[in-house]
Amino acid sequence: MIQPPIDLSRARELLAQAPRIAVLTGAGISKPSGIPTFRDAPGPQANVKPITAMNMTLFRADPPAAWATHWPRVLAMRAAQPNGAHHLLSRLEAQIDARAVAHPETRDAYEFTLVTQNIDGLHQRAGTRQVIELHGTAHKAQCTNKTCKVSFELDVSLAPAVPLCPLCGTAGRPGVVWFGEQLHPVRARLAKSAFLYAHVALIIGTSAQVYPAAGYAQEARAWGTTLIEINPEETDLTRLCHLSLRVSAEEGLRALMDVTR
Ligand SMILES: [Zn+2]
């Protein structure tokens, strides 16, 4: 069954009542925080090569060179601050938590899941707790010893050196998913089920062309999830969404959450 499109006031109602909300965010939400999007390069930070230019073969050939490319990105993300849109999503999560507390008998029915394609960690810094980082995080490294594989926090005071695993001393690799690599299977499964079981899903600042995010919207819609897009530009997902707000992430969230300041 194809659900008809909805208007802003209906979207507000749904968002204010929905027990289960899933959110997908992409580069667009972090742009006001100064994190360059892949498409923007080359720009003011043209010296920071896009992360997708790296792969495991290149990394193994020259780990110090790979880290020399990666560290400036890590440091830029550490220096960046969450913006209004990140804070509004954190507030939305708190609202769902409050609804769950107000309805103890059906507490388990409430769930907020934020799935992000971003590696900048800004959602967590804004206070959101349920975050699935589909593409990993710039703030961690992963041990390249296959019998260890431990993930560890980066110590920025060590830049630009190759970080070594605290357990076995092997070189770490950036904790992000490189082009052509598989997503973490558990993260991908959790992200998908959050979308399928959500009453309302927000798709913010991403054209979701990256697999598998595009598939979430399609399947979620078939499962009855109301899809709301916030993006200044039309995307391939626009036609699938019940409502598409052609504004910035912060403006769109303010409108949907009825927040004036
Ligand atoms: Zn190790």
UniProtKB/TrEMBL annotation:
Location of the active site: H135
Enzyme class: transferase
Pfam families: SIR2
Binding site for Zn(2+): C143, C148, C165, C168
GO MF annotation list: histone deacetylase activity, NAD-dependent; hydrolase activity; metal ion binding; NAD+ binding
Domain Deacetylase sirtuin-type: from-to ranges: 1-261
EC number(s) recorded for this UniProt protein: 2.3.1.286
Gene3D superfamilies, alphabetized: SIR2/SIRT2 'Small Domain, TPP-binding domain
Keywords attached to this entry: Hydrolase, Metal-binding, NAD, Transferase, Zinc
Domain of life: Bacteria
PROSITE patterns, per the entry: SIRTUIN
Protein name (record): protein acetyllysine N-acetyltransferase
Organism annotation: Deinococcus soli
